[in-house]
Design a protein that fits this description.
With 200 residues, the protein is mostly helical. Helices cover 56% and strands 12% of the residues. The protein binds fe (ii) ion (FE2). It is an enzyme of class 1 (oxidoreductase).
């Protein structure tokens, strides 16, 4: 018998780990620092953010997930155009995803998620999904974890931007993307050739 760990299964496992790590006993309350600043900038206020997040989680039709994510590019999924990022792309967004999909597929950095598959809440809340979402937001969310994820996402986005900028400059100057590596390859080829002739 063969067992296949499908892509969907792996995504679901990743989503669940991410979900469990989004919580802690005695969580909830209000975030602080950078995270709070960005929430206030991008949603108007923390209260507005909570409302929007709850609404997204409550209205994800059927099984799926609601997410807070850091969006650091203008990736357009429909026509696969990915222009250079700009300051205004660096924002927090609330997104919903069906089934096992997560925001990594849109090239967003996930910061927080809630599982709104029925199995996640049915035992405790039956069909009262909004109650489950409220408890999650008010008593369980670990804002420290979300803050740490935001810092990592920003660092990763900055790194990527520098890398893209470097590549763009090289293209503009008409250089091969990695000149040194090309030289190494050539030397290796010549060396190998010499070795062959010595062996004969
Ligand atoms: Fe689940």
């Amino acid at each position: 018998m063969f067992f296949f760990l499908s892509f969907t299964t792996r995504l679901q496992a990743w989503n669940h780990d991410f979900f469990w790590e989004s919580m802690k006993p005695g969580g909830g309350g209000k975030p602080s620092g950078d995270l709070l600043d960005l929430i206030e900038r991008d949603f108007g206020s923390f209260e507005r953010f909570i409302e929007e997040f709850k609404a997204a989680a409550a209205t994800q039709f059927g099984s799926g997930w609601a997410w807070l994510a850091y969006k650091a590019n203008r990736l357009d999924v429909e026509n696969a155009v990915n222009p250079w990022p700009s300051e205004k792309d660096k924002e927090l967004v609330i997104v919903k995803s069906p089934n096992a999909v997560n925001p990594l597929v849109w090239d967003y950095f996930p910061l927080l998620t809630i599982d709104v598959w029925e199995h996640a809440y049915y035992l405790d809340f039956q069909n009262r999904r909004p109650d489950y979402i409220s408890v999650f937001m008010e008593k369980l969310v670990s804002w420290e974890t979300v803050n740490t994820r935001l810092e990592k996402a920003k660092a990763r986005a900055a790194e990527r931007e520098m890398e893209e900028e470097r590549r763009r400059k090289e293209e503009e100057e008409g250089k091969p993307t990695n000149e040194e590596e090309d030289d190494d390859d050539l030397e290796m080829y010549v060396d190998n050739d010499n070795d062959d002739s010595e062996a004969e």
